Amino acid sequence: MWPAPRSVAALVSLLLVACGSARPPVDGEWTVRAEATAGAVQPLGGYLLASEDPAEGAGRGVAPEDLGGDRIALRGDADLRVGRRWGGGIEVRPTADDRLRLELDVAGPLRGRAHLDRDRRFDGERYAAGEATDADLLARCLRVSYGQRVAALGEVGEEGQTDLVVRVGAELLATDDAHVAGSASPEEGRQLRSGTPFLGVEARAALAPRVTFVGGLAGGAWSLDGGSRVLGDLNLGLLLGPVGPVDLHVGYGLGFRSSRKLYENHELSRVELLRHEVVVGLGVRY
Description:
It contains two helices and 13 strands; from the N terminus they run H-E-H-E-E-E-E-E-E-E-E-E-E-E-E. By secondary structure, it is mainly β. It has a single domain (about 25-285), classed as Lipocalin, CATH 2.40.128.90.
C-alpha cells in the first residue's frame, strides 16, 4: 500500500528542515557580506629553522659546521611578543545553504629581542650565546572555501536555532617571512611559501535577538615536492546585529601552522607557529 500524499509531504518537509533547505540562515538572509578585521595575535610556541645552501655558503666563506640550521624557539630564544592581526574577506551566498568565501589573513610582524643562552645557527650565520638578537616573523595567507549547510535545527527566529555547515577549501599563497639579526652578527632572512587544503565544520546558533554564536573547527595537511604544511584552527565568537546593513563580529582564535620546504640546492626552511588571537570584525551585508 502506498503512503498517503499528506504523509509523503510531511516526510519531505521534515527532510528539508533537517538538511537546511528552504529555511533562512540563523544570521539573517543576505547574498553578499564583506568584512574587515583587526586585532592582536600572540605566539604560544613554535620555531624557525633555516639551513644554508652548501655551494652558496662555501662561496661566502661560511664554515661547514655553520651550514646547518638550529631550531630557534619563538618564545624561548627569540622572545616574540604580541603583534598585529588584520585581514578581510567576502562571502557570497547564492542560496540559503551554499557559501563561497575568500579571506586574507595577516599576522604580525611578531617581533622579539632577547639575549641567547645558547648558540643558534640560521641561514649560514651563527648567533653566539649571550649575543643580543632581534627576530621577527610575518605570516600571511589567502583562503578560498566552499561551505554547505548540512543541518538546520530549532525553530526559525527562536533562541537555539542552529545551522551546521561543512566547509572545504584551501590556503593559497601562504607565506612566512622570518628575519634574525644579532648585535655582533649580520641579519639573515628567509621566506617560506606553502599551502594546503582543509576541511572544517562550523556552527551558528541564535542566543538572543541580534546575537549569534559562531564557532568553527578546521584541519588540513599537504605534502608535495619536498614541501609540506599542516594546519589546525579553532575559532569562537559572537556576531552582533545587524543594525541596518552593518554587523559586528568579536572572536577568539587558536591556530597552528607547520610548514617545511627542502629545496633542490639542499637548503631547508621550516616554520612552526602556535598562536592565539583576539579579533574584531566590521561587516557589511547586502
